[in-house]
Amino acid sequence: MRRGIAASALVAALAVTMAACSSSGSGSDSKSDGPVTITYWDTSNATNEAPNYQELVKKFEAANPNVKVNFVNVPFDTAQNKLQTAMGAKGAPDVFRSEVGWTSAFAKAGYLEPLDGTPALTDVSAFQPSLIQQAQYSGKTYGVPLVTDTLALMYNKELFAKAGITAAPTTWDELKADAAQLKDKAGVDGFWLKAADGYYAMPFLYGEGTNMVDTAGKKITVNSAEAVKAVDTYKSMFTSPGTVKADVTTDAYAHMMDAFNNGKVAAIIQGPWEVTNVYKGAAFADKKNLGIAAVPNGSTGKGGAPTGGHNVSVYAGSDAAHKAAAEKLAAFLTSAESQTFLALKNGTLPTRSDAYTAEVKANPGIADFQAVLTSAQPRPELPEYASLFGSFGTNLGKIVQDQSDTKAGLDATATDYAKLLPDFTK
């Protein structure tokens, strides 16, 4: 499922103190020497992924007879707001699956239990270091990496061969040239990029050596000269020959995936969460037809895509017995065995090296994305970072529809950022 960044004002949580968070999430008996029922909020896709998480929870209960788990699947698009509301009042889950962008904000608000030295995080060295870094705030770790992802160039090898293209493009200019050649020689659209979405625009910023903000220098950079150049390149991906014009409808994502899965467009920028669905498409009955390569580089000769994914976090407002049980569940869900199970069932990327078994790596989608992960950019430790995507995406939508020129649109975003980050300079 798309790792979309909710546009809600997550930073509002930062003003809420833990005084309002004194009740246990499960509301069950808090005695530490008896059975405990904990509540786990799962934010995975209810149809394709959640059943496998439920199966893992049942295995956990069988191995821990004194712990019962109330499994609740919460739609990802609404989970951020629901968690924020619940943790600021009552009814919060004891443990939950949290998008990596939420972790530092929830930690700053005091909602999360530090997991360093707890049973939840006993084998920290097994995890990819950058993923542990993304789960930290002010020197403490508030989540255990559950799944990871990034963006890559997915392409149809058969269509590329038909157009006489023998290798994946390594720059945006090469991709535009390939798109035109695909249209001319293979008779299909060459490239489709998800429009008006800041997450999918991040590789263009990285390719010009910039980001939305410079966290170390406390500076807003979304309207810098480098960012303007990046977004001009981004905009050209909707207007060049062979590229699909910007689709800003509510069903844009589904339109893009349908076209790619059925061989109507030759290449897209996408994440590993779609690999399983792509394999179900008519164009990829032969899984070997799916090509996966790093996103193209910008004019700096560098590139990369954002590192996304989910952590398992424990609610700080639960009592000791529920925290202890929640930490056990967090450890179980992120164990090598569970990570391997999820990779095989859901096609997701493990966060720890010992889960990349021969069987897991036999899935070409997982093996190819593992290689792409080496160039992925970790998310900076900034509680407000997830909230930056809202204004950025809105103004990208205006830019690609010619309702605003690039500089004016990014200036508008910078103005919004100044309100969100008052201690940052423009």
TrEMBL record:
SUPFAM superfamilies: Periplasmic binding protein-like II. Residues 1-19 form the signal peptide. This is Extracellular solute-binding protein. InterPro entries: SBP, SBP_1_CS. Belongs to the bacterial solute-binding protein 1 family. It comes from Kitasatospora saccharophila. Keywords: Signal, Transport. Gene3D superfamilies: Periplasmic binding protein-like II. The keyword Signal applies.
